[in-house]
Amino acid sequence: MSQKYKSHYPEPSETPPIDVMPASNGEFMPPDPTPAQRKIMALQDEKIEEVRRGFGMSRRQFVRTAAAYGIGVWAIDQVTGGQWGKYAWADGTKTTRACDLENPGTQLANLPGEFILDTQGHVLDSDINAKWRTQEPGFMQFLLLWTTQAMGDYPGYNEGGVRGFGAGEIDPVENLGRYHYFKEIFLDSSETVNLLTSLPRLPDEVNITPIKWAAETRDMVNNMTQSERCFVHAFTQPNRGYQGPGKVPAYQQEDFDWMSSVQGPLDVRGWKLYCGWGDPGLGAIGGEGPATNGWWFDDENGMAIVEHIRRIHAKTNRPPVVCTHKGLSFNGTFDSAKFSPRDMGIIAVQFPDITFFTYHSGFDGEHMQPYPGDDNVNSSNRGVDAFIKSLRENGVDATRFIPPGLEHGNSPNMYAEIGTTWWANMADADRATHLLGKLITYVGPRRIVWGSDCIWYGNPQPQIVLLRALQFSEQAKQFYNLPYGLDGDRWDPRKNALDGSTYMMPHPNVAGWPTDGRAHPERSIRNGILGRTAAEVYGLDPDAARNALSCDEVQKLRDAYLLNPGTPKETAPAASNQILGPRTRKEFLRFRKMENTLEPHKFIRFPD
Amino acid sequence: MKGKLAVLAAATFSVVAVSVAPAGAASSYGPGSYQTGPSSGDLSAFTHADPETGKVTILQRNTRQAAAVNCVGDGPRATLLAFHQVTDQISSVQVDYKEAILSDNEIILHVAVEGDKTGPLGTKADFGPKHAATGSVTVPLRKLPQPGERVRVQFGLQTGPGCLPHPQIGLPGSRFVNGGQIVFTSVKVG
User: Fold this and answer.
1) Shortest Cα distance from A176 to chain B (angstroms)?
2) What is the pLDDT of residues B46-58, one digit of tens each?
3) What is the distance between the terminal CA atoms of chain B, rounded to a whole angstrom?
4) CA B101, CA B107: separation in Å to the nearest integer?
5) Which of A285, A301, A391, A554 is most buried, most CB within 10 Å of its CB?
6) Nearest neighbour of A290 by CB, restricted to B69, B110, B175
């Protein structure tokens, strides 16, 4: 009798590399797949079978090739590409056969002009003795709840050995640790540089990514590659020890002193803030707020911390950079009202000498459409439109800063970061186009930066492949005044950066315009988003030589981890290539049922 | 003769009165002269703004279901408008209110000032909770509108959408109901 369900181990998955189906970490019912999602996956399946036979490869081998990525891009384009956006190189081929596509964007090597700076990398101190694991157990619950990378599959045993949670570790937190970070970011993706940013909380020693540990991680990468491929943020907050309105929080001075002590010595290049983070439980007292007492940039705590950041950076040669989470509400875990971007325009006006990055651009799961106009948007909402409204009502949106002779401007000191926002919208070419179109219009062609929010989501490569491929339709080009879409020059988007004839003579309104008659892909809006725009802010030279991190070096880390007492040995496939966890209601119910059996390892996808 | 003296006295008084009046004296607008401003909100929200009385009300029930990460919705927003034609230099706008009841910190009293030529001139927010409070919000203008320009002062209440407690973590989510009511007594431009 044939086996009803496949076992996990030792076979790597046969899932296509671009997988758009819903996923759960096992704690909640995944939403039903949309007809579009089903169609994308069905098309991929069909083409993968057709092409891999032509290549003489097994399916398992084939789904790990660049051609399989190309098929994924093509399938999304076939289903969602239309009125506003398309995915090239998938679009407009003569035969529409996936194997005709020759999509260079699916490869790990960087394309001409490309420098990829992921402004939102994450990893945590997974050591069994890390303080946060005993003193902040709620955070573990939060991470396991959110990240399929940590928790999306059950452990089990099979003839080949043991298999752990999520990405394969028996200790689920280890799935979010250094080994998987190095592997997913520096081996299995095209990223050039990763900005290792942070999550709450203070004091720093109980943070999941303490700054000293983060700096050590950065130094490991940079030493192994003998080049700058990683730099760090530190988390901070102004409201620890909240004592009520008008009173200075009990630990504010202590935390400010700590900031001063680490900024220079550990080379903290920016500060990561979460306005929705406070002292758990205190907000419910006296009607001050909900689960936690968050803060606004335009209240006394917000003003105090930005002033302090300005003060301490004046003593170093690093420009002051404030990065703040806005959007993604995490209702119940955070004071989600304070994740409204309402105050971003206000703070940008108050501190013109500081650079602000609005992480997630305010996105909170809304359907992406054109900006509906100021009178139709409530800036207290969460959402990309609320972020734009905040800039507009404070007069710092890009449309107020259009230089003479040009038709696009840039917000003076506000940047839009699209971590998770891109991930959540990229599987629909129309929505992806509106997201970038309105951010280019209202924040600026030189003010958008990409972040992956990985390792929480596993591997960032599908995000990169799709960002390389997005093309605006003729209608979108006209609507957003971007005749070359993302291939427009960042300084003058009306010019095509990929066409040498653009750069034959000086531009009357743009200083330093190339005149060598060659294409300048490094000047495109797309390459700005992928990394060059952020590089300007952080003072990185995108064209400096950077070296690869070798498999051998990562394996040494892996070996060291395996020797680590208290963390059981576990084997993970070389390329995970899989979104973990139940994907349908049926799988979810089976998954939950397996919790109460002795055979959880037998859970795997239904053959249908 | 008496009549001539009266005319002279009146003329003298007018000259003195004009000369002592400060240039750019404040103009004041109150209920009755307001107009209804933009409002919004989804099916969980209630909004009302009455230009005749200056009363603004927002309310929402936060029974929207949170997803693992998101809390999607359109929170309530209700506003009034006052318009001022610039004749003399102005540098600030003050919005006075009374009987403000704002249920919690996330209910925002929001004032935005914009000129039809200069563009946005300034915003200012005040926060809850407030319990039958009287007060004012002053917006210093960071740009000065030009004479002849029409300045729009938008003032009201707004908040973002709230959701039920997170289904798995079980921590308190948003309050089940929140909102606010306020009476805007005057808008002073000067």
Assistant:
1) 18
2) 999 999 999 999 9
3) 42
4) 10
5) A391
6) B175
> Is position B3 within any domain?
no
The predicted-structure confidence for A519-538, as pLDDT tens digits, reads as follows 999 999 999 999 999 999 99
Residues 257-296 of A with CB under 8 A from B: 280, 283-284, 287-291, 293, 296
- pTM to 2 decimal places: 0.87
* Domain span holding position B84: 25-189
Average the pLDDT over B96-122 and give the result: 96
- Domain-located, residue A579: no
Amino acid symbol at A540:
L
Q: How distant, in Å, are the alpha carbons of A21, A274, B71, B78, B124 from that of A383?
A: 23, 16, 10, 19, 21
Give dist(CA A184, CA A194) in Å, integer.
11
A3 belongs to a structural domain: no
Determine the Cα–Cα distance for residues A402 and A405; give it in Å rounded to an integer: 8
Residue B49 in any domain: the answer is yes
CB A74 within 8 A of CB A101: yes
A194 touches A121 (CB < 8 A)? yes
Q: Are B86 and B190 in contact (CB under 8 A)?
A: no
Cβ pair A337:B72 closer than 8 A: no
CATH of the domain at B54: 2.60.120
Say whether the peptide bond before residue B129 is cis (omega within 30 degrees of 0).
Answer: yes
**What whole-number distance in Å separates Cα of residue A560 and Cα of residue A126?**
13
- Which structural domain, as residue segments, surrounds residue A223? 117-125+177-538
Asked if the Cβ–Cβ distance from A146 to B40 is below 8 Å, we say no
Q: Which residue has the tokens 């090239």?
A: A88
The set of residues, in sequence order, having a beta carbon less than 8 Å from that of A589 and lying 6+ positions away, is none
The tally of domains found in chain A comes to: 1
C-alpha–C-alpha distance, residues A192 and A108, integer Å: 11
> For the segment B166-185, what is each residue's pLDDT rounded down to a tens digit?
555 545 667 788 999 999 99
Alpha-carbon gap: A376 to the closest alpha carbon of chain B (Å): 7
Helices (H), ranges, A56-210: 59-62, 66-80, 131-135, 137-146, 148-151, 178-181
What's the domain count of chain B?
1
Residue A486 lies inside a defined structural domain of this protein: yes
Neighbour-count burial of A404, counting CB atoms closer than 10 A to its CB (0-12 exposed, 13-18 middle, 19+ buried)? exposed
Taking the C-alpha atoms of residue A608 and residue A94, their distance in angstroms, rounded to an integer, is 33
Please indicate, yes or no, if residue B10 is contained in any of the structural domains. no
Q: What's the pLDDT at A413?
A: 98
CATH number reported for the structural domain that contains residue A452 in this entry: 3.20.20
Label the pairing between strands A230-235 and A193-196.
Answer: parallel
For residue A276, what is the nearest residue in chain B, using CA coordinates? B106
Other Cβ atoms within 10 Å of A519 Cβ, number: 20
Size of interface A-B (CB pairs under 8 A): 147
The partner residue sitting opposite B169, judged by closest CB among A333, A393, A395, is A333
Q: How many residues does chain A have?
A: 608
- Chain B nearest-CA residue for A326: B70
- Asked if B26 contacts B95 with a C-beta cutoff of 8 angstroms, the reply is no
B16 domain residue, yes or no: no
Nearest to A163 by CA among A591, A458, A567, A571: A571
Question: Within 10 Å of residue A253's Cβ, how many Cβ atoms?
Answer: 12
Closest partner CB to A382 (pick from B41, B160, B167): B160
d(CA B14, CA A181): 80
A-chain residue closest to B166, CA distance = A332
Within a domain: residue A8? no
